[in-house]
């Protein structure tokens, strides 16, 4: 079977002893336009947990997070109280950081506020890219930025709304993951498939 060309960060991660799900995440999810609020919330929880850690570390714990955080239902997570926080701090399957756990609960409440105001979180976040994916044409992984004017604006607005652990770098990763920005490099087989992606 012919080996597919992928973004450099995947092969670098694979050589670093990562796991099959790492490649599957690149192949099946990364850069695919997301309009499902629960998926957006899932990535926000995982990305805020990642701060200071590698994405691979968080990806390994994804199933445990799904179980611990009510399958990423923002309404349920927003209702978590201190007893639940203490329970989560004992859960070895997730990152046991009290500030991050409390931030996820607080962020769920802010997420619901946006849904109330905009009708959906998806409608809100897609406004920051003009309603359709921004398609980049990087030839090297080193060209891909860590932030953008869009992630700066999003981070500033979300901070004003009370979100935590979601700065511009983390939110640029969210824009990439959820397909608002398409950052597969031109040599990657997914570039051709996703460079024509349209928001719907």
Structural write-up:
By secondary structure, the protein is an all-alpha fold. It has a single domain (8-12, 33-194), classed as Orthogonal Bundle (Endonuclease III, domain 1), CATH 1.10.340.30. It has 12 helices and 2 strands; from the N terminus they run H-H-H-H-H-H-H-H-H-E-H-H-E-H. It has helices spanning 8-15, 20-28, 37-50, 55-60, 62-68, 74-78, 82-89, 98-118, 121-126, 149-160, 168-177, 189-194, and strands at 134-135, 181-182. A two-stranded parallel ribbon has the order 1-2. The chain is globular and about 50 Å long. The termini are far apart. The mean pLDDT is 93. Keywords: Glycosidase, Hydrolase, Metal-binding, Zinc. It comes from Cesiribacter andamanensis AMV16. Zn(2+) binds at residues 7, 26, 184, 188. One of its GO terms (molecular function) is DNA-3-methyladenine glycosylase activity. One of its GO terms (biological process) is base-excision repair.
Annotated CATH homologous superfamily: Hypothetical protein, domain 2
Q: Proportion of β residues?
A: under 5%
Could you please say which CATH topology applies here?
A: Endonuclease III, domain 1
Instruction: List the secondary-structure elements in sequence, H or E.
Output: HHHHHHHHHEHHEH
Structural class based on helices, strands and sheet pairing: mainly alpha
Q: Based on the coordinates given, report the CATH architecture.
A: Orthogonal Bundle
| Name of the CATH class | Mainly Alpha
Number of strands: 2
Radius of gyration over alpha carbons?
A: 17 Å
- How many domains? 1
Strand order of the largest sheet: 1-2
Counted by DSSP, the helix tally is 12
Average per-residue pLDDT, rounded, comes to 93
Largest sheet: 2 strands, parallel
Helix percent reads 55-70%
The rounded distance between the terminal residues' Cα atoms is: 34 Å
What would the principal axes of the Cα set say about the shape?
Answer: globular
């Amino acid at each position: 079977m012919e080996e597919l060309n992928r973004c450099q960060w995947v092969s670098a991660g694979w050589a670093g002893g990562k796991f099959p799900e790492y490649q599957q995440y690149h192949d099946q999810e990364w850069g695919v336009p997301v309009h499902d609020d629960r998926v957006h919330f899932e990535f926000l929880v995982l990305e805020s947990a990642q701060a200071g850690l590698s994405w691979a570390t968080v990806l390994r714990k994804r199933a445990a997070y799904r179980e611990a955080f009510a399958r990423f239902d923002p309404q349920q997570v927003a209702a978590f109280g201190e007893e639940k926080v203490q329970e989560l701090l004992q859960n070895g399957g997730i990152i046991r950081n009290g500030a991050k756990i409390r931030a996820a609960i607080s962020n769920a409440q802010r997420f619901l506020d946006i849904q109330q105001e905009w009708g959906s979180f998806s409608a809100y976040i897609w406004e920051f890219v003009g309603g359709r994916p921004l398609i980049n044409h990087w030839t090297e992984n080193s060209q891909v930025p860590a932030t953008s004017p869009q992630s700066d604006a999003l981070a500033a607005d979300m901070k004003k709304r009370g979100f935590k652990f979601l700065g511009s770098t983390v939110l640029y990763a969210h824009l990439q993951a959820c397909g608002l920005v398409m950052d597969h490099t031109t040599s990657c087989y997914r570039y051709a498939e996703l460079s024509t992606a349209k928001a719907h």
